[in-house]
Structure formats: C-alpha cells, structure tokens
Amino acid sequence: MNRRLLAAVALVCFLGLSGCTAIFGANVDDPEALSADANYDYDTDYDASLVLNRDNYTAVYNVSRKTVGDEGEIELYTTDALAVERPLELRGLQFRYPNGTVLRYTSDGDVVRTDTGETVDTLEVDSTRQRSIVELPAEEGQLAFTTPRNGKQLTVETPVNGSYEVALPPNTDASIPLLSQVRPENDDRREVGDRVVLTWENLDSSVLVLRWYLNRDIWLFGGLAAIGTLIGLVGGVYYYLQIQRAKERRQEEGIDIEYDDDGDGPPPGMR
Fold it and tell me: What is the dihedral of CA 145, 149, 154, 156, to 10 degrees?
C-alpha cells in the first residue's frame, strides 16, 4: 500500500481516537464541562423549557415525556448543515427528582446529591458517533443542561413531547416572517422583561426550528425600505419631468403637429 495513504489513514485514526474530529464524535463526557456552574429554573409548568442566550442555551426537560432513547436513557443530539447527526455537547448537567433533590457532577467526574454531598452511581454520560446518551436516575424528574450555540437561528432535535416554552435571547423577536421563522408555529407568546417567550401547548414534532432578529434590525430594515421607497419616488418624478420636457421641446420645434383628419384626401404633407 502507498506510504502516503498509510500515513493519511494513521492520522485520521489518531485524530478520531483523540476526539479531535467530529468523524468519531465529540468529547461530550468531559467532567469539567459536565460540572460547570449553571442555574436552572425547574419551577416550570412546561415539559420542555429552553432559554436562549448569546452563545449557548439552557434546557430543562421532563424525562417522563422522552421520545428518544432506550429504557432508562435519553439520547441528545443535533444535526449539521448536511443533516448528519452528531452528539450534543453537554455542560452543567443536572437531574432533579420530583421531591426537589438535585444531582450534579463534580470536577473529578463524580455525581453527588446537592443536599447531602453523597456520591451516587448514576447520571452517567456516554456518546456514540451520533448521539449523547444520558443514563437517567429515575423515570420521573427533570434533566437540565447547557449547550453551546451561535448565530440567530437554532434547530432543536426535540427529545421529549408535550408542552414547550422557548425564551428568545434578550432584545430579539420572531414575529416578522421575512426576518424570522418559527416551525412548527407557536400557539402563544408573551414578554418577560427584555425577552419574548414562545409557547406550544403540545409540540409533537421531532424538530423545532427557530430564527429570530434583533429589535434594532427592524429599524435598520425599515430605514432601508424607506430609503428605497424615497429613491423610487424621486426616480419616478425625475422620469416624469424628463418626459414632459421632451414633449415641450418637440412642440417648440414643431415636431408634434396635430392635424384634423377627416378621412378624405392624401395624408398630411402630401396635399
């Protein structure tokens, strides 16, 4: 076999095993990332509550409504531009029992109860080339985590069915179709401080697509539209005046001469 080909294969295998390429999946079970500090609002009446921030979003899911994963597990993933599945990068992973007890990771990779500090053998995270797999401590409760994001759009592969609420980033909105997209269409919306919160009573779609705009973009878009309209009006008036001036010059030069045509005799100029 060609030495260059062997070297290329060895390099790909090395990068894949070291977690430096998405071909073999991201390193989603990093204790430092899983133990990152995070605050979640567990007091929600929705099965899924997402809060979008500048460079990440937080999610709190009711695991009793999960749709993806084997018994006792939930699978979390996203898709790239080519619709290829890849594991969701998890930070600040926590689990809250119905009685209020919260489990979280420590920097050394242990999972502890926040009320007693007791170490428990659950909430393990594993990953395949396509998905992050979280072992759930119980069939009832809430799973919370933070995951990176960027840009003004987000596609969420929904791991649970039921009611959803999504808080858009501060000072943004998604109500103008030309500038935004919400699919499936939300049932309701409300404003909480500087955020717009979209809600769905029963979201049973496997994908939630959101695209939003900054509030200041409306002024920019409106200003550009006003300038375009003004330019169009000025151009129309200028064009109209040019036509009128051309008509006046033709009349002054005798080019436009009207004759009464009674239908008899030769045409004008030949009589």
Answer: -30
Nearest to 125 by CA among 85, 92, 79, 80: 92
DSSP 8-state symbol, 69: S
Helix (H, G, I), strand (E, B) or coil at 24: helix
pLDDT, one tens digit per residue, over 216-258 is 867 665 555 556 666 777 677 777 777 877 777 777 776 655 5
Of 103-117, 154-168, 174-188, 205-219, the range with the lowest mean pLDDT is 205-219
Q: Residue 166, class by beta-carbon neighbours within 10 Å (0-12 exposed, 13-18 middle, 19+ buried)?
A: buried
Three state DSSP letters for 201-241: EEECCCEEEEECEEHHHHHHHHHHHHHHHHHHHHHHHHHHH
- At residue 10, the 3 state secondary structure works out as helix
Residue of 50, 32, 41 lying closest to 182 (CA atoms): 50
Q: Which amino acid is at 143?
A: L
Contact 203, 164 (CB under 8 A): yes
Q: What tens digit of pLDDT does each residue of 130-151 get?
A: 999 999 999 999 999 999 999 9
Query: What is the distance between the alpha carbons of residues 10 and 3, in angstroms, rounded to a whole number?
Result: 10
Q: Where are the alpha helices (DSSP H) in 122-169?
A: none
pTM for this model (two decimals)? 0.74
What's the chain's average pLDDT? Answer: 84
CA gap 76, 89 in Å, rounded: 9
Strand partners, 147: 57
Query: Which residue bears the tokens 């909430």?
Result: 123
Closest CA to 66 of 172, 129, 141: 141
